[in-house]
Amino acid sequence: MGEGKIGALPLPSLFERARKIHQSVTEAGGGADQDLVKKGYEALEKCEEMISKLGLFSSNETKEDISTATLKYLLVPFYLGELTEKIVQDDRIQILKASQAKLKEFITFCESMELIPEEELEASSQGGSNTFADQRARKIARFKRQRAAESKLLEIKERKERRGRSTKAAALSTPVETGEEDEADDDVEEEREAWLTTLSLAICKALDLLEMLKKEEEMLSAIKERKLKEGDNEFSRDALDDRTKKAEAWHRNAATRVLYTKPVQPITCATFAQDVLEGRANATEAHEHKHQPMIFGPQSLVGGSLTSERERMAAQVFQPGHRLPTMSIEEAGLTEMNIMNNWQERNAKLMEEANSAWYKESWKPGPSKEDDDEDDDAAQDRARAMDDWKDDNPRGAGNKKLTPCG
Fold first, then answer.
1. Among 50, 125, 192, 291, which residue has the least CB neighbours within 10 Å?
2. Does the pLDDT at position 3 exceed 60?
3. Closest by CA position to 153, among listed 211, 194, 95, 99
4. Are 266 and 283 in contact (CB under 8 A)?
5. Burial 177-190 (b: 16+ CB within 10 A, else e)
6. Phi-psi bin for 87: left (phi > 0), alpha (psi -120 to 50), beta?
7. Separation CA 183–CA 168 (nearest Å)
8. Which candidate, 50, 34, 16, 47, places its Cα nearest to that of 83?
9. Please, which pLDDT band fits residue 261 given cuts at 50, 70 and 90?
């Protein structure tokens, strides 16, 4: 391949040169030569300019309307997008945006040519589902299509090589005049199938690369915004170093204190043990079953005492929705024990009073003889008064209207 000027080359030669540069850069991976990348980028830009001037494609056409010799030029935006992503530059975000623009242009044009699979069209029309299951299903289907396209291209290449070897062998043995037109038609169909398969493979790669570039752009934009807000990164680094030094000093001092401190008495109260673990009490303190209210939030994780009102408010950010207990289990047990002791003492006192001498005296309450006599006289007086009244008021008096003969 000659190293002539780019402007002097025709479109087929220029495209072939750019395609080979793209292939070598892609195989090199991240360590690609930047001069070679820029040469391929310039060649592809020239191809894109020539395609636009010649008007090879129209938005009203489909893949059936495009000739076999023109199909390969649909790959120019895809090659440009991949080579743009390989360019090393300080402002990586601008490179990512330019690469995404070319890839979107390629996907849009393939969609108008009816080259995009139905699954991808449905996903793009629905706005793309964010569930992991849908993303995984799309990636698996895309990977299967990519593998099928790669195996099909390899099969076409091997078939073409076998036919070329057989044609050379037949030409050396006996010249064949008949059937040349059929072989030419087969070559054209095979070439068309190869370019369509290459386009299908390029679509799968473009969709994957587009998703990857979007994520990279989001991460770089977030880092850039954070740097603009925080200013220099040295402050956060110094804070981390200071925090690490404090933690190391605390552990070192704790290890030193263990050698000279006496072991504390074992803790037998569950509530006091919880207070010690969460930093509300020290293991050396005397415990009198005094219940402390449970503190939820940052303070229960950090431990230590509340030194300011701000820390107290921060420690009570996350509080339970129910009312907290007012006493511990040990306090409730002690309270019930006191109630039972008082009840037993009261019962013992009552039993003692019941067994005393004055309670055993036989005393039967009742009226005296004088009261009986007075009651008898009053009863006699009432009986006499009733008799006198009955004499004055015979039975039926006052009901004269009821008598038949009045």
1. 125
2. no
3. 194
4. no
5. eeeeeeeeeeeeee
6. beta
7. 13
8. 34
9. low
**Tokens for 6?**
């780019």
Nearest to 195 by CA among 15, 9, 6: 15
Cα 113–chain centre separation: 39
As a whole number of angstroms, the distance between CA 31 and CA 91 comes to 19
| Residue 321 DSSP SS3 | coil
Residue 364, CA atoms < 13 Å, CB-side half-sphere: 3
Contact 317, 298 (CB under 8 A): yes
Reported as half-sphere exposure (CB side, CA atoms, 13 A), residue 383 has a value of 6
The residue type of 89 is Q
H or E stretch covering 316: none
Half-sphere CA count of 358, side-chain side, radius 13 A? 2
CA distances from 359 to 344, 346, 348, 356, 367 (A): 21, 18, 16, 6, 21
**8 Å CB contact between 200 and 149:** yes
Residue 345: band (very low, low, confident or very high) from pLDDT cuts 50, 70, 90: very high
Q: What is the pLDDT of residues 236-251, one digit of tens each?
A: 666 677 778 888 877 7
Residue 334 tokens read as 């002690």
SS percent in the chain: helix, strand, coil, step 5: 70, 0, 30
Residues 6+ apart with CB under 8 A from 275: 281, 292
In this structure, the number of other CB atoms found within 10 A of the CB of residue 153 comes to 16
On whether the CB atoms of residues 210 and 103 are closer than 8 A, the answer is yes
Cα separation of 213 and 216, whole Å?
5
Residue 49 parent element (H or E): helix 34-54
Report which of 309, 271, 273 is spatially closest to residue 293, judged by C-alpha positions.
Answer: 271
Express each pLDDT in 20-52 by its tens digit: 888 888 887 766 788 888 888 888 888 888 888
Of all residues in the chain, what percent carry a pLDDT higher than 70? 69
Tokens of 105: 């242009």
Instruction: Compute, in degrees rounded to 10, the torsion defined by CA atoms 21, 27, 31, 32.
Output: 0
List, in order, residues 6 or more apart from 48 with CB less than 8 Å away.
76, 77, 80
Exposure of 237 in the CB half-sphere (CA atoms within 13 A): 5
Which segment of 80-89, 174-183, 279-288 scores lowest on mean pLDDT? Answer: 174-183
